[in-house]
Amino acid sequence: MEPGSDDFLPPPECPVFEPSWAEFRDPLGYIAKIRPIAEKSGICKIRPPADWQPPFAVEVDNFRFTPRIQRLNELEAQTRVKLNYLDQIAKFWEIQGSSLKIPNVERRILDLYSLSKIVVEEGGYEAICKDRRWARVAQRLNYPPGKNIGSLLRSHYERIVYPYEMYQSGANLVQCNTRPFDNEEKDKEYKPHSIPLRQSVQPSKFNSYGRRAKRLQPDPEPTEEDIEKNPELKKLQIYGAGPKMMGLGLMAKDKTLRKKGECPPTVVVKEELGGDVKVESTSPKTFLESKEELSHSPEPCTKMTMRLRRNHSNAQFIESYVCRMCSRGDEDDKLLLCDGCDDNYHIFCLLPPLPEIPKGVWRCPKCVMAECKRPPEAFGFEQATREYTLQSFGEMADSFKADYFNMPVHMVPTELVEKEFWRLVNSIEEDVTVEYGADIHSKEFGSGFPVSDSKRHLTPEEEEYATSGWNLNVMPVLEQSVLCHINADISGMKVPWLYVGMVFSAFCWHIEDHWSYSINYLHWGEPKTWYGVPSLAAEHLEEVMKKLTPELFDSQPDLLHQLVTLMNPNTLMSHGVPVVRTNQCAGEFVITFPRAYHSGFNQGYNFAEAVNFCTADWLPAGRQCIEHYRRLRRYCVFSHEELICKMAACPEKLDLNLAAAVHKEMFIMVQEERRLRKALLEKGVTEAEREAFELLPDDERQCIKCKTTCFLSALACYDCPDGLVCLSHINDLCKCSSSRQYLRYRYTLDELPAMLHKLKVRAESFDTWANKVRVALEVEDGRKRSLEELRALESEARERRFPNSELLQRLKNCLSEAEACVSRALGLVSGQEAGVAGLQMTLAELRAFLDQMNNLPCAMHQIGDVKGILEQVEVYQAEAREALASLPSSPGLLQSLLERGQQLGVEVPEAQQLQRQVEQAQWLDEVKRTLAPSARRGTLAVMRGLLVAGASVAPSPAVDKARAELQELLTIAERWEEKAHLCLEARQKHPPATLEAIIREAENIPVHLPNIQALKEALAKARAWIADVDEIQNGDHYPCLDDLEGLVAVGRDLPVGLEELRQLELQVLTAHSWREKASKTFLKKNSCYTLLEVLCPCADAGSDSTKRSRWMEKELGLYKSDTELLGLSAQDLRDPGSVIVAFKEGEQKEKEGILQLRRTNSAKPSPLASSTTASSATSICVCGQVPAGVGALQCDLCQDWFHGRCVSVPRLLSSPRPNPTSSPLLAWWEWDTKFLCPLCMRSRRPRLETILALLVALQRLPVRLPEGEALQCLTERAISWQGRARQALASEDVTALLGRLAELRQRLQTEPRPEEPSTCPSAPASDPLGEGSGKNMPKVQGLLENGDSMTNSEKAALEEGSDLEMLSSLLPQLSGPALELPEATRAPLEELMMEGDLLEVTLDENHSIWQLLQAGQSPDLERIRTLLELEKAERHGSRARGRALERRRRRKVDRGGEGDDPAREELEPKRVRSSGPEAEEAQEEEELEEETGGEGPPTSLPTTGSPSTQENQNGLEPAPEATSGPLAPFSTLTPQLHLPSPPQPPQQQL
């Protein structure tokens, strides 16, 4: 490895262009545009627009190719020279019987080639030794001083290089006694590369297309016969994959083993003991095995098997050997046989003589000289042996790169790959081999671009790219391209080539055939790194490469045309060659310019496509290239003369630029042809024949001297018909006389000028046209052309397809400018004539516009119109100045001037001043009108608008004063608006006097203030409200509550402080308080009735269906109130008289209705009868079902039937516990068996004393309530009824009956009863009370006496259940009636009783009448039994709930009073926390029902979802008298309601 090879410095970047879409549409035009810049670098890169992305059209599955093999260090010219030198010196020592081992000096192998060159440059071996300059040699080889390296280098030179140099110089070799490499155990063995022979391969026989021009073909490989004739091949054993020495091509005997692309196998020469040499053909595998065997051989030479001299026993054979030096055959033991030529030499005849016979192969000095001086053969690439698809090649390429750099392929930096590439290229130690799929013909394998052909249908997108000029299949044959005029088969230049690359695969320094352009597009994959040299430095690059590597060019003069040689860009740049570089990424183009050398390598796996193209500017370079090829004797791809003549034959088809360029080339070519033909005449050749050269194959019209393809003319000989020469080599055809030679020509000298003239006409047509245009645009003759004349010139350029030159662009610009001026002038004139302000332009613009029209090289009659407008504007300007100078002028005059100026269509500076004056006058006038006393007051928005408008008016003293006044007025108005707003917000209500003061002060402001207006309206409403209050307070009656509430609501909404409002609020509050107290007194809990409805009589009581539907309507909120049924409107409720009259009428209707209802219900069948059937007249309970069987109760008022479990039922006993010595239980008429249904008893029915207290409180209210009026009527009705009841009870008959009843009770209390067993037989039901009483008294008495001796627990049990058991046991003893009640007495009492039951008031007289009527009839045993059963079921459920509640309390105590937890208390319902222990107990009962699942007595389970549920929820409870009494333990039986979720606890009457 060379020192400093790691320090590769990248050259500067080449130009990069990014065309716009408009530029990109013309490929060759854009390339011509960038050529002046890009040509200076030789190459450039073009990035297409981002959305130009052609699809990849290659059929990936069918794409198969065989790549080339590239060994990197054999590509670089200087490295190849070194490797060739090492191969030659290795061959020299191999011939001498030794293998080359390269020594290591200072940890790197010794560069023997550089050592040899430096020794020669320093004067030679003898001179350096004489002057002791080996240290200088070490210094020039970059070895550090002071380590005696010079002496070591001298030793190596003497052992290895000096003998070889002596043979090269032709001197005799002084043979050393010892082998030169025996003592160098640390030296590195050198494996000969034999580069030329191994890489000298033919192009693929399967490819019929040549990538480049025809090149020098290498000599054919030697055949088997040649090997047999060559005695050296029988003596040498050569290892490797192919021939190792120039001229020693080896062929296997079995030629069928040589497959396509494989290297020829090695011929191995083995020596058997006592036998002859045996020649074998070995495969690469055999080679590896034999190599391994040799590596363990004790012989010092490992690269070559020594052939020891054979001892022949045949005497005749020995005598045939004679020494070539002394011609004697004696002393044959010292006679050496040369293994190369079989000559014999005495060891003492050699100079210098040898001390002994050497072992192994020995060559005589003559053979060694011949082998070392054999010229090398041409260098080339060899083909790989494997065929790849794109996928398999990509996998191989990516795997190689990832393994080499030990990282993912996409993460390897391009800079690192570049440095590593040049390090490997410059290394003689590291042999890295890669493969490159280069020069794959797209005609055979398919292009990467879409192509329009009949093979496959293209999509619209593919069709677009198939016709694009940047498609490499299209660009070479574009109209402006030269190659499209060539009919010959030059597909190598016109058809794209494909390149499949991998990392490090390279393309070497070269220029394109015929020095044409080339364009390369990278379809996909990793970047491709390029290096370029401009055409100006092409010869300089060739000189530098020839200077640095003359050995290569001596054997291959056209080496740079073979694309097989690289040279480090840093080396070229150090010798003054300008080099640029670039990284071509996927989707980018790289263009190389004519004669621009370029090379590069691939960064990784990629796919590229390239093609040549030629433009008009290439023609001179193409002609120079032909002259260059003539000097090099290089074949042409096509005839340049033929191309020029073909284009000249059809000049009308040529692009104008191309025609001009062809004319210049044709002129030069014709002049040269005249000169050459003249020289031919001077030589004496007079015969001539016309020849259609274009019909001849290229190889039949090539000059035998310079290989140029002839077209215009050639010299041939009648006697030598196989060859011809161009006219530049007429002396090199043959030695025949000139008379036998004749001219073969394509055109005569008269035809060529005619063709030239046609080209000139085509080329000069543009010049003629250009002169016309130039004269017209520059007005050289002083006459301006009309628009029509200029348009005709432009149309001529378009029809004759003149190029888009600068002159044509000037003409187009002039036409566009003139047409724009005409259009603008017409718009200006037409706008002025119509009196409409069109496009406004300033006076300066008008003058500039007129100057522009005058300066245009075009005559336009609109110029006069524009001049007239300018004169009008100047006159107007003078008038405006005069008006402005005489200010103040009248606004009318200013306005009229301003309107005139606007109609001109031109902005005059004075018009702006006029506009300012007019705006000032208009604004001041508007301000005066707004603030005038007689004008309507403006709003704040108007004032603000005036201020904003004033800000845009030009300032003046009057304007500034008006703006200040407006601002002050606006500030004051906003302040008062804020005050009014604060008052309206009612945060602190002000009295009316304050608001009146604010309004009076705001009236002085000449602005309409919305808040002040709203304050006025509020004050007016307040005054009206006060008047309404005074009117109500001073009326004949107290005001109604509804009126007061309306006034309070209105007064609260007013933003005015009102003293009367507080008084009204207090009155309303007192009235609501009285109403709530009355509601609590009358209404049941959750009652569906209002207080007024309860207090008014039920006017529709006569219809059972009406009452029942009324009940359901109340549940659904559809029922009309009693006040509406009474016919009272809202206004009637305000009149006490109307209320009283309606109440009286309602009483009468209620009485009549209940009588009708009683008659109707009495006619219904009894549910207790077994034959009861459902009919239209059947009773319906509140639950919606027909009551039947045991448990049905009949209302004592309406006579309708109900389920006992669905309604509240009375308690049987309302007296104190019985005395042990008395039997009050037998006074059955005192038992509370009276039952009123919830439809008849709508309220709690308070006592009259409670109602009177409510009336007293009502008298103190200064407010009238409808409920108060109704309560007074109800009270009067109750007192009236009470008077009549007392009168009836005080009559003689009734008094006597009451006395007898009292005596009967007294007797029952005083008479003792005999003891009886706890179980007594039932007495006959027919026994009278008086008769059976004496018998039963002892039984009852005994029962009571036994109770005294019971324990506490037994007494408790007795208290819980003995009362009901006792009553049950007495039922058989009950009989009646107790009194004989005459019908005359009964009827009035029953009527009174009915009227008393209609009253929603509890009166003692009602109870007395009830007892008297009960005593006058037989006891209702069925009702008593029903009530007992219902009460028993209720008590059973109550005991179960009590026990469960007790258990819960105990659990709470056991848990440590968790119920006292504040957090738990916080989570409890508010009704629990706020109602004390009673509420807590109620809650526990609710929780109990949740635990027990709502189980209760079976008799109290109504049907789920029945109306009884709604009835209970609406508080159907008995009157307080039903539960208040001495018998506290007996609670009223309330139906248990079981809702689906959650269960509700039973509700009890308080």
Describe this structure in words.
The protein has about 1550 residues and is α+β, with helices and mostly antiparallel strands. The protein has a 9-stranded mixed sheet with strand order 1-2-21-18-23-16-15-4-13. It has a 4-stranded antiparallel sheet with strand order 17-22-19-20, covered by helices on one side. It has a 4-stranded mixed sheet with strand order 24-27-25-26, with no helix packed on it.
Shape: elongated
Unreliable residue stretches:
1-5, 173-185, 196-319, 1215-1222, 1314-1358, 1458-1482, 1484-1550
Query: Between the first and last Cα atoms, what is the distance in angstroms?
Result: 119 Å
Q: What integer value in Å does the Rg equal?
A: 69 Å
SS content category:
alpha+beta
Short description:
The chain has 1550 residues and is an alpha+beta fold. The protein is 47% helix and 9% strand.
Q: Topology of this protein?
A:
Blueprint: E1 16-17, H1 21-24, H2 27-38, E2 43-46, E3 64-65, E4 68-71, H3 77-95, E5 101-102, E6 104-105, E7 108-109, H4 112-121, H5 125-131, H6 134-140, H7 149-169, E8 188-189, H8 195-199, H9 224-229, E9 266-271, E10 277-282, H10 284-295, H11 315-319, E11 335-337, E12 344-346, H12 365-372, E13 382-383, E14 388-389, H13 390-405, H14 414-425, E15 433-441, H15 442-445, H16 460-466, H17 491-494, E16 497-501, E17 506-510, E18 517-525, E19 528-533, H18 538-548, H19 550-555, H20 569-574, E20 580-584, E21 589-592, E22 597-602, E23 606-613, H21 619-632, H22 640-649, H23 656-683, E24 687-690, E25 713-717, E26 724-725, E27 741-745, H24 751-778, E28 785-786, H25 787-799, H26 806-834, E29 841-842, H27 843-855, E30 858-859, H28 862-885, H29 891-904, E31 906-907, H30 909-931, E32 938-939, H31 940-952, H32 957-985, H33 992-1002, E33 1007-1008, H34 1010-1033, H35 1041-1053, H36 1059-1082, H37 1091-1095, H38 1104-1116, H39 1122-1125, H40 1136-1162, E34 1192-1194, E35 1201-1203, H41 1248-1259, H42 1266-1289, H43 1292-1310, H44 1329-1346, H45 1352-1370, ...
Parallel strand pairs: 1-2, 24-27, 28-30, 29-31, 32-33
Antiparallel strand pairs: 2-21, 3-14, 4-13, 4-15, 5-8, 6-7, 9-10, 11-12, 15-16, 16-23, 17-22, 18-21, 18-23, 19-20, 19-22, 25-26, 25-27, 34-35
Helix pairs in contact: 6-7, 22-23, 23-24, 24-25, 24-26, 25-26, 26-28, 27-28, 28-29, 28-30, 29-30, 30-32, 31-32, 32-34, 33-34, 34-35, 35-36, 36-41, 40-42, 41-42, 42-46, 45-48, 46-47, 48-51
